[in-house]
UniProtKB/TrEMBL annotation:
It is found in: Endomembrane system. Its main location: membrane. Produces ATP from ADP in the presence of a proton gradient across the membrane. The keyword Phosphoprotein does not apply. GO terms for cellular component: endomembrane system; proton-transporting ATP synthase complex. This is ATP synthase F1 subcomplex epsilon subunit. It holds the Pfam family ATP-synt_DE_N. It comes from the Bacteria.
Length: 76
């Protein structure tokens, strides 16, 4: 699936991943291929796309049709 991590300043990551782990407000969760559409808030923590890790300072994620869009406040 296609993953994008975007901050107000720039696009931090754009690429393919088999699994994405996200720091949800109510706990960490994972997205796999063909996941149901979802919009969720994120807290400070690590976004892991396969083996690449990005530490964010909160934000929002949208999953739709095998596309994961993370709108992060900042990448630390």
């Amino acid at each position: 699936m296609h993953v994008e991590i975007i901050t107000p300043d720039k696009k931090v990551f754009s690429g393919e991943a088999d699994i994405v782990t996200l720091p949800g407000t109510n706990g960490s969760f994972q997205i796999l291929k063909d996941h149901a559409p979802i919009v969720s808030t994120l807290t400070k923590g690590d976004v892991i796309a396969d083996k690449q890790t990005f530490t964010i300072d909160g934000g929002v994620v949208e999953v739709l049709q095998n596309k994961v869009l993370v709108l992060a406040e900042a990448v630390l």
